[in-house]
Amino acid sequence: MPRSDVHRVSPEGVANAADVLARAFQDDPLQKYTFPDEDERRRVSPAHFRAALEYGLAFGMVNAVPGSGAIVALPPGQTEVTLERAEQGGLTRLPELIGADAAGRYLGVMSAAGPMHGRHAAMPHWYVMVLGVDPEAQGTGIGQALLSSVFAEADPTRLPVYLETTQPSNIAFYGHMGFAVVEQFRDPVSGLDVWGFLRPPREVVAVVEPTRRPRPRRRYQPKR
User: Fold this and answer.
1) What kind of architecture, by CATH, is found in domain 7-199?
2) What percent of the chain is predicted at pLDDT more than 90?
3) Cα distance between residue 21 and residue 131, in whole Å
4) What is the pLDDT of residues 112-144, one digit of tens each?
5) Which residues, other chains included, contact 206 with Cβ-Cβ below 8 Å and sequence gap of 6+?
6) Is 8 helix (H, G, I), strand (E, B) or coil?
7) 3-state SS string for 43-85
8) Domain regions of the chain by residue span
């Protein structure tokens, strides 16, 4: 049964979801590389994730368990972050939101790892752009519920789901959720490892009620 506390995020809920993602990624390797100073990372990360959430609202689906976790997923046809979409969704404002140096570090890694996405998910698919759970809520099924909300969109049309991570501790979790590692890329500048994952399409099996045979009718036999 899907969790009832997974909700679509409205524009009014972006700030709360951004704070949750900032806490979730405080110790993430890419986020630590983007903001080497811990205090700066804690202070500026919400603005970083606000940009991703607003992009998701413009071009995809943003779900959350309020105060505990959030996910940004892009549907088929919207999975490539083009310059035009980045401008419309606000991603081109990253340098002014988080600083030019931080934006350069982050975008450098993402640009280097970008071709991996195209190599392994050239077909129509869903792309999990961001998924994070507050450290205090990890291990309670929230990450599974958020991913399942994307599977609920992908599975009826038998579409795969693609995502990346730089966090080695996520590998087992994604494997448990049906993903397989399709490539491990090492960024030559940052030295970060980026893992690409693909969850193959799933067959949706309809539940069919067993056919009940009609009970034979007893013929009326008049008494003699």
Assistant:
1) 3-Layer(aba) Sandwich (3.40)
2) 88
3) 8
4) 999 999 999 999 999 999 999 999 999 999 999
5) none
6) strand
7) HHHHHHHHHHHHHHHHHCEEEEECCCEEEEEECCCCCCCCHHH
8) 7-199
